[in-house]
Amino acid sequence: MGEHARAGGASFATRPAPFGAGPGSFSPADVEKQRGVRRMKTTATGLLLLVAVIYVLAKWGQNSGAGAWAGYVAAAAEAGMVGALADWFAVTALFRRPLGLPIPHTAIIPTKKDQLGVSLGEFVGENFLSSDVVRQRLRAVGIGGRLGTWLAEPEHADRVTAELATALRGALTVLRDSDVQAVVGEAITRRADAQEVAPGIGKLLEKVVADGGHKRAVDLICARAHDWLVRHGDSVMDAVQGGAPGWTPRFVDRKIGDRVYKELLRFVTEMRDMPGHPARGALDRFLGDFASDLQSDTDTRARVERLKSEIIARPEVQDLIASTWSAVRAMIVAAAEDERSELRLRVRASLLSLGRRMATDRRLQDKVDGWVEGAATYVVTTYRKEITSLITDTVAGWDAEHTSKKIEAHIGRDLQFIRINGTVVGSLAGLAIYAVSRALGA
């Protein structure tokens, strides 16, 4: 039996495993483990032969009148043989049929491989993927505190920042600009169409007028209007003269044009220099009324919405919205690549600050632990069947013979110790039983 097993193991180790055999082909470490199994098989088999020889000699001595001791030795050797043979049968039955005989409940691993995979999957699901077990294990680890302590180290914060920058660059590189631009454009347009802007503009204008914020704009407009009139006085007078009737004399047209220009210049100058000018007051009242209409007048709000839709629908505006993504993308990529960019410096500082808080703030640690526990529990409870099916499906796809030989290479050496222990324990048990029997019989 030992020689047969050694020959079979050696021939299997020298040929490659079939494609898709399951737990992988035999590695050099596996081959070395197989050699150890063969050595232990030889030792266990040699011990069986030794007690068999001792039994034969002891029985011969007992029949030859060697004395009472021969009976004790024969009983111990006999029980040792029984124990060795029983354990050999049990160990062999795990991987193959003993002596090739079709004995029921033998070759357990090759024939029950799929059931073992299902049982293993159920065992993992019930004992490792239950919500209570996951929560207890994660709570014992204290992820929040450990993560905070790790993240508070500057070199670790630098590493996380660099990894985040790499991931961000990779994500932006994978995304197609045209797709993102279309999504951004559609989102902005849909959001603008759904949101009425008139009331918001009215409230803002009302606030600006109440605070006098519009007065600087009026000051700027009046100043620019005055400067323009000073530089383009001839153009104003020509425009007035050009609109006069053809039957009026030329000098009258010039007189009227000069008069209109001077009055217009005086009006603008007074508005510029007089904060309390009546026209400014009229403008304040107009803006206040317009702000109120934007919030409450139905017709005004409808006109503003139509104007908004017309502006958004213009190709120039859509192109501007679409091009915004390109500018933002280029800015983010440049900031992510530059180690001294404000973006990366701020991210690093934020990570260090977060790490220090997580390392010392118990409430934050509990909050992070709760998030992690919740996420892990959701995953294991939602996808437990998929996770365990990975085990069962993988085991089901393994080649039965290859799997059996692979497992035997890993645990066979320890199993051979069972044969050795069975021989020794059987001998001691047989000796004790024989001794008790003789003592009682005496």
UniProtKB/TrEMBL annotation:
Taken from the record, one Pfam family name reads DUF445
- Keywords for this protein: Membrane, Transmembrane, Transmembrane helix
Record the organism. Streptomyces aureus
- Matches recorded under InterPro entries: DUF445
Official protein name in the record: DUF445 domain-containing protein
Residue ranges annotated as transmembrane are 42-58, 70-95
**What domain of life is recorded for the organism?**
Bacteria
Keyword Transmembrane helix attributed: yes
Q: Where is this region: Disordered?
A: 1-33
